[in-house]
Amino acid sequence: MWCSQNRYYLWPDYKRIDNAHEFYTPSLDGGIGRMIEFAVLPTALQAALVVTLVLIEAIGLYVGYGMIEDRVAPQVFKAIANTA
Amino acid sequence: MELLGLTPELLVLFVSFGFMVGVFFGFFGMGGAFLVTPALLILGYPAPVAIGSSMAFVFGTAVIATMKHHDVGQVDYKLGALMFVGIIVGIEIGKMLVFGLEAIGRAELVVGVAYILLLGAIGLVFVQKARKQDSADGDNETQDDDIPEIAKKIKSYNIPPMVRLTDGSKASMWTISGVGGGVGVVSGFLGVGGGFIRMPAIYYLIGVPLAAAVGTSLFGALMSGAVGAFSYGLSGVIDIGVVTALLVGSALGARIGSASTAYVDEADVTIYFGIMLLMASTAVAFGELANWLEMPIFDTVSFVLLIGSSFFVTVIIIYYGAVSVREQAALAEETPQADD
């Protein structure tokens, strides 16, 4: 029997998606507005903001990790090379 | 206490899993989202949420990969742009299928079964590839500028409108739209970037040389991810906390994975990657059994298989990389002494 509503969760305290259909159904509560506080905006703008947010995160992570790599990588390679 | 809307356990899990997925993506150039969607399904996320979040993750990962590839690789932006309309239509069709299935309560089951077949098939391809690498001596390697016979045959049919690609060759707009649309349906339905079919399709069907096909496929993944994230975002089914946690891990993992390509022979680890995909396929099957038979223990087995096999292959890649770095350092120290 199909029982997606009664799924077992690996963490007993993980209640977040027990009411997943309610939580994520946009017609009920504005969808992603529940996750990010811009539910007052039109749906298309919310979706565009999500895409923009991911884009900014990706660029930030690329640049940020790049700077860390420039500083840390030579020491890491040196440390690996020196291990017996 | 929650961060990004996730409990500390889940936050650590997603960052770690993102790291592993990033290592695979950086090392093999694929293997990103087609592990993320099954993982989210196993954790109990509804199919639209798993797919929508995975599409947003694909977008972020593809942005990072394209930025990296732009400087060193070849990207046919014109071809990528021409595929855009097909991608949009394909993703919309894939998304409609998912929501149609969700409406009748069958989305998790159908997407799960599709993943079992997909991961199993790709896993078998990698295992087969590893066995061939063992028996071959690399005497039939493909040149970057070569295009396969089937692509030459398809190109010989001039079905208008024909467009000129960046490399000077011509291709029918129908072939380009067909590739974009076909991969778009798979992307929209499974929440994957589709690189594992887009790259071969660009190479075999459109006839773009291999080096440019890889870069163009990444650019296509970026567009698929953007369109898919926007489309699923319209339905409010993207968990931005999950996406962020995965990206934090994958951006770091991708750097380590791509750095490892300079030190680790792909042939050494291909077999492990293939086996891992087969285990991931089995993991999804256990997840489906857990639902079907209402036996929670299968969910645990499923989770352990997916995360455990990913962890094992990540450790293998990093271990081989570290050994190779040490060997090269030792060799560099010995070389001046040998000269003396």
Summarize the entry for a quick read:
The complex is a heterodimer of chains A (84) and B (340). Chain A is mainly α and 84 residues long.
How many distinct folded domains of chain B? 1
H and E string of chain B: HHHHHHHEEHHHHHH
**How many helical stretches of chain A?**
3
**Largest chain interface and its two residue counts?**
A-B, 50 and 58 residues
- In terms of DSSP E residues, the strand content of chain B is under 5%
Distance between the termini of chain A: 57 Å
Give a short account of the largest sheet of chain A: none
Radius of gyration of chain A: 21 Å
Shape of chain A: rod-shaped
Distance between the termini of chain B: 63 Å
Order of helices and strands of chain A: HHH
Number of strands of chain A: 0
- What global shape of chain B is seen? globular
Please give the largest β-sheet of chain B.
2 strands, antiparallel
The parts of chain B where pLDDT drops under 50 for at least 5 residues are none
Report on this model:
The complex is a heterodimer of chains A (84) and B (340). Chain A is 58% helix and 0% strand. By secondary structure, chain A is mainly α. The radius of gyration of chain A is 21 Å and the shape is rod-shaped. The N and C termini of chain A lie far apart (57 Å). The N terminus of chain A is likely disordered. Chain B has 340 residues and is mainly alpha-helical. Helices cover 79% and strands 2% of the residues of chain B. Chain B contains 13 helices and 2 strands, in the order αααααααββαααααα. Chain B has a two-stranded antiparallel ribbon. The longest helix of chain B has 44 residues. The termini of chain B are far apart. At the A-B interface, helix 1 and helix 3 of A face helix 3, helix 10, helix 11, helix 12 and helix 13 of B.
